[in-house]
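User: Design a sequence. Structure:
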């Protein structure tokens, strides 16, 4: 694999792990709601922020991959 493909793989794996963490935060928020704890809002806000960061990582990764493909097509 080329260096850019390895970088894209790492970005996708990071996004996948972050998504799993966000799902865990949402699950914890649901458990906190059932227990009547006051931590529901901070957990949901943390999950939303994490998902926004993941979205930014994925958009940047897709943009750089599209630029790489464009350069390789123009060079051919």
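Assistant: Done.
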């Amino acid at each position: 694999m080329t260096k850019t493909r390895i970088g894209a793989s790492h970005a996708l794996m990071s996004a996948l792990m972050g998504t799993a963490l966000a799902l865990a935060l949402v699950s914890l928020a649901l458990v906190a709601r059932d227990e009547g704890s006051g931590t529901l809002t901070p957990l949901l806000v943390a999950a939303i922020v994490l998902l926004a960061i993941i979205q930014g990582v994925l958009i940047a990764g897709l943009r750089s991959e599209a630029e790489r493909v464009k350069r390789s097509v123009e060079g051919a």
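Residues 3-70 form one domain. The chain has one domain: 3-70.
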